[in-house]
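Lab notebook, bench 4. The sequencing result for the construct came back, and we need a structural model before the next group meeting so we can plan mutations. Quick request posted to the team channel:

Model the 3D structure of this chain.
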Amino acid sequence: MRDLSSKTGPSTAEPADSGLARRLAREIEGEVLFDRFSRGRYSTDASIYQIEPLGVVVPRHQEDLRRCVEIAADAGVPLLPRGAGTSQCGQTVGAALVVDVSKHLNKIVDFEAEQRSITVEPGLVLDQLNAFLRPQGLMFAVDVSTASRATLGGMTGNNSCGARSIRYGTMRANVRAIDAILADGRLQHFGEIGLNRDSGDSAESDGDARGNALTASLLDLGRREAEEIAKRFPRLHRRVGGYNIDALVDRRGQAANAVAPELAPNLAHLLVGSEGTLALSRQIQLDLHPIPAHKVLGVCHFPSFYEAMDSTRHIVALKPAAVELVDSTMIALSRDIAMFRDTVNQVVRGEPEALLLVEFAGEDHAEQLVHLRRLKELMADLGYPLGLVEVVDPKFQSAVWEVRKAGLNIMMSMKGAGKPISFIEDC
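Done. Here's the predicted structure in token form:
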């Protein structure tokens, strides 16, 4: 295993005098933080919500994680797994026992370059993962704007999307399998049915009979409700509304019987987006993609927000790798920030109400330039003949994307009492 954690000493905070805290301190090797200061620190995340937890544990290893689940179940207290706390909807705060996996459970467990697969612990940060993969010419493609701090466990829990989901899909499309801990502390493997494991359960599931029974009951539910699932679940590209019950049927939307491997249901996809309410992910197997050799960027200018939004249905027909919005408020605020001013002034022409950043990527540089030319022709057809700024220099492309990634921080730099408040995700 590769340990990517920072080397810090144990906490000096004394747990509060409670039976739960004393038991945790006695039975796990990680930190147990029930003091008021620690509970205050963990009462917030990136959202507007503030709820003080019952206490906090920082497990040191996988057995600690399992014991935390078992102890919480015995004590009858809710348990809340937490990564970096980048959620904007309050998913990582609550009156529960908070389990912080970010400090120690952040290892790369297994890496198979030829199979383009990697298995990680839930506390690994996305940027750290991609830094490890980059020398191999590979990447994990779900590139959220909080990549410098977002953990893979949290991204799995909320089915993260990222700027390039238009090409690579959401987190669900990029998770191959999850080894999880159920609410009673049992281990269970969730993955593709009928491939490596006939039952969909790993050898390390606790009790083959109980593990197989859970898998069988889930597939029975899928068979029983296949028609209703097909009727009620919309075929949307970016659907992050909650429980992916359609994962219980095969990928044609039919009951999971004997099907080809590429159509077989994947029970890991049921956990993706469930916010840790079905099981706690302890190891996650991810699909990887080659890093595109060449990228080009078109910055499309629009006189109104509505026109920018309306044009996207035409732009996506060109099969870009990414389409992202920058509105006039962000443009104006970015010009007031020294580190972004030059980039914005170079790429923005006039006073547009909205920009769309449209990226094309692939192995052939000439082909990407052809895509950029077609985008220019499309903009002219839509009535904006001078509305495209082409960015082909890789370093300047990165600078433009950094402005977009800093969007929330830029919006919060607004001077005065009136500030934007982030409390609804952009699903």
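The first strand starts at residue 2 and ends at 3.
Will bring this to the meeting.
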